[in-house]
Write a structure and sequence with these properties.
The complex is a heterodimer of chains A (314) and B (364).
Chain A: H1 2-35, H2 43-61, H3 64-88, H4 93-111, E1 127-128, H5 138-142, E2 144-145, H6 147-165, H7 167-177, H8 179-184, H9 189-215, H10 227-237, H11 242-261, H12 263-268, H13 279-298
Antiparallel strand pairs in A: 1-2
Chain B: E1 3-10, H1 16-40, H2 45-57, H3 60-85, H4 93-111, H5 117-146, H6 150-170, H7 203-222, H8 224-234, H9 236-241, H10 246-273, H11 279-283, H12 286-296, H13 301-325, H14 331-346, H15 348-351, E2 352-359
Antiparallel strand pairs in B: 1-2
Helix pairs in contact in B: 1-14, 2-3, 2-13, 3-7, 3-8, 3-10, 3-12, 3-13, 4-5, 4-6, 4-10, 4-12, 5-6, 5-10, 7-8, 7-13, 12-13, 12-14
Classes of the chains: A mainly alpha (314), B mainly alpha (364).
């Protein structure tokens, strides 16, 4: 009884983390973009392009690792485009981001229209970490995953370290809070924003690749089903902190998994389980609400110049 | 010695001709980018565009269907204009439209079954408006009271509305006469909107949407609440000092924009489909396309009329070539996204003016 419970819990933790990883990767990138003052609402679209590019490359070369690389590059290109539109052309960032979602939705389904319903022959497979994976619950939960999940552990720590412990982190935060002061200090506002936004795009592309190459290794249109938007909500919930983004992403992964786990018991109780599909979306709104209570209490707000283009001298 | 001095000046109200030029210019750029993407996928863009244009604007059927599509676009974008003016980003017209459809379906099949037409149809519009308004009111209150980001909240409400429609058509509302297809039974004759004879244009909804154009214009230009919306949209801080009630403005703009989208939903099910069916086939992305039309009209209700007619045509023609070339439905999004992207990018031209002056000698 207890041993089967341990196995079940380990399994639940395992899928929660797996489901949370694309959310984590996308929110980490967006944390950097928003900290530098650029809002990118286009995550959903960039994730779709990353997922499609990754899938096509992995399918045609037979090498999922190449697919991952291609997805990162594709995401970075779209991120760079967003940076150009928002920073150099000073466009409205909300509208530009929405446009990116539309472009990504359309472009991904056009690119991959011949791959619909095809499953990947060689996906990114889970690898057990010797030794660590034998710890009860934790071992199955954290150390029996594909390579991108392991990478996400390190990326989170590195990004947290850069943000809070290096001068580059200070630059990024300064640019996002008060760009003219940062400019006066000699920080290149435009360059910092370009780099952060492009990086955010690359991370969203990577997140898409995790979905189409590891989590559900196949292609269907709109494969991200709103995860880009959930990642955006996570950034707010995380108060723009990479470590909190990690916790939030895994909590969300759990809600995603719970909707499948609750199906059987609900059916047994005579309740129709099909409304469980609304679960992640309702949870997102609740999380935003809880997050805003905490933000109001701690008086933490969004980066002060988020969404505002910087123009020197005006 | 004289110098030519070139500098950029901030412009707050660009001339009309420039605004029109920028709109047309960005449309052209978007169509060109889309042409390259089509070329890369082995599709001849010139004949595709010619076909879109011909099928939607040069045939009687094309114009008829462009008007059918204009109706939901116009209603949704009118509502969005009110919200966008207040700088409130309602991305949820899609879900608000669906909730309007759900309300109309309930009246037609359950709530007022057997009642005469003159009672059913006004009730459908009324309840449809309320359902859409309620769906928008939830994020409005969350934003007003708890600063919950309305963009994400309204978008999540879209997904929830879609799931609710799916739940209804697969579950309790699945038709008894539909061979287990996930659709409801057909609406009784009394619950179907009258059409302009010989066409598929449901004229009551068209009439409502046309009447709303001047009304929304006057609302924003001439009324006290319209003034408050504008002030709040330009500067929420200033609005607070001017004693403008934030909750009131947010609730008002969201109720209007959600309600109008709800009306569009009533028109779609009661005027076209005559039943509730798979959510995408009802909403067709109108709620998202309306964001573009609202923006393209530069949030001016009067400009909206030609813009939504044009976009209705694009959707009709887009459907035709999509079926001809067997492209996925979401390709329409690619078009829309490119247009929107080039539109916001080219707005820079409207914000600055290049000023060239001759500056006289010695002092310089």
């Amino acid at each position: 009884m207890t041993s089967s419970l341990i196995i079940e819990l380990g399994h639940l933790l395992n899928i929660s983390i797996k489901a949370g990883t694309p959310l984590l990767l996308a929110s980490l990138g967006e944390v950097y973009a928003e900290r530098s003052g650029v809002l990118n609402l286009g995550l959903e679209g960039i994730m779709l392009i990353g997922a499609a590019t990754g899938f096509i490359v992995a399918y045609s070369t037979g090498c999922p690792e190449l697919g991952v690389l291609a997805a990162i590059v594709a995401g970075a290109i779209i991120g760079l485009l967003h940076a150009f539109v928002c920073i150099s052309l000073q466009a409205n960032q909300v509208v530009a981001g929405l446009a990116l979602v539309m472009v990504g939705t359309g472009l991904s389904s056009l690119m991959a229209r011949d791959y619909v319903g095809i499953a990947l022959k060689r996906a990114l497979r889970p690898v057990k970490i010797p030794g660590l994976s034998r710890i009860p619950i934790i071992g199955e939960g954290f150390f029996h995953h594909d390579i991108l999940v392991y990478a996400s552990y390190f990326i989170t720590l590195i990004l947290w370290f850069i943000m809070y412990k290096t001068k580059y982190g200070i630059w990024i935060r300064a640019v996002g809070e008060d760009p003219s002061a940062a400019d006066a200090m000699g920080v290149n506002v435009y360059l910092v924003r370009y780099i952060c936004t492009t990086f955010g795009g690359a991370m969203a592309g990577l997140a898409g690749a995790h979905i189409s190459l590891a989590y559900t290794p196949m292609w269907v249109e709109g494969i991200t089903v709103g995860r880009g938007w959930i990642a955006l909500a996570l950034v707010i919930f995380a108060m723009w902190d990479p470590l909190r983004a990690m916790i939030g992403a895994y909590l969300f992964g759990t809600t995603e998994v719970l909707q499948y786990w609750l199906q059987m018991p609900l059916q047994a109780m005579g309740i129709d389980p099909s409304l469980l599909g609304t679960f992640p979306y309702v949870a997102t709104i609740i999380v935003l609400l809880v997050g805003s209570f905490e933000r109001i209490r701690k008086r933490i707000g969004a980066p002060a110049s988020l969404g505002k283009p910087y123009v020197r001298g005006f | 010695m004289k110098w030519i001095k070139i500098r950029l000046e901030r412009v707050y109200e660009a001339p009309i001709w420039l605004q029109i030029f920028v709109a047309i210019f960005s449309l052209a750029v978007a169509l060109m980018i889309a042409a390259f993407i089509f070329l890369a996928h082995g599709i001849d863009p010139v004949s595709a565009y010619a076909k879109i244009f011909h099928d939607s604007f040069l045939t009687e059927h094309g114009i008829e269907f462009s008007i059918v599509k204009l109706i939901p676009l116009l209603l949704c974008s009118l509502g969005l204009i009110v919200a966008f003016k207040a700088n409130v980003w309602n991305i949820g017209a899609e879900g608000q439209l669906l909730m309007g459809s759900v309300a109309a379906t309930w009246i037609a099949l359950y709530g007022m079954k057997g009642y005469p037409s003159w009672l059913i149809i006004p009730s459908m519009y009324l309840l449809g408006f309320l359902a859409g308004a309620l769906w928008a009111f939830i994020p409005a209150i969350l934003k007003a009271k708890f600063e919950v980001n309305e963009i994400i909240a309204t978008l999540m409400m879209n997904y929830i509305a879609m799931k609710i429609v799916e739940f209804l058509i697969y579950g309790p509302w699945r038709g008894a006469t539909t061979w287990r297809y996930p659709i409801t039974d057909e609406f009784p004759i009394e619950a179907r909107l009258p059409l302009i004879p010989g066409t598929s244009i449901h004229w009551p909804t068209l009439l409502i949407s046309l009447a709303l154009v001047p009304l929304v214009y006057l609302l924003l230009k001439e009324t006290k609440i319209g003034y408050e919306i504008n002030v709040y949209g330009l500067n929420p801080e200033a609005a607070r000092y001017a004693g403008i009630n934030k909750t009131k403005v947010l609730a008002f703009v969201m109720i209007i924009s959600g309600g109008l989208a709800g009306l569009a939903g009533v028109g779609e099910v009661a005027g076209i489909h005559h039943r509730l069916r798979y959510p995408w086939t009802i909403s067709c992305g109108y709620g998202y396309t309306a964001i573009i039309t609202a923006w393209l009209a530069r949030l001016n209700p009067l400009v909206l009329l030609p813009v939504t007619f044009f976009f209705g045509g694009l959707l009709v023609g887009g459907d035709v070539i999509r079926i001809d070339l067997q492209l996925p439905i979401s390709v329409v999004y690619l078009f829309n996204g490119l247009i929107l992207l080039s539109l916001v990018s080219s707005e820079l031209i409207l914000r600055y003016r290049i000023k060239v002056t001759l500056v006289g000698g010695a002092g310089r």
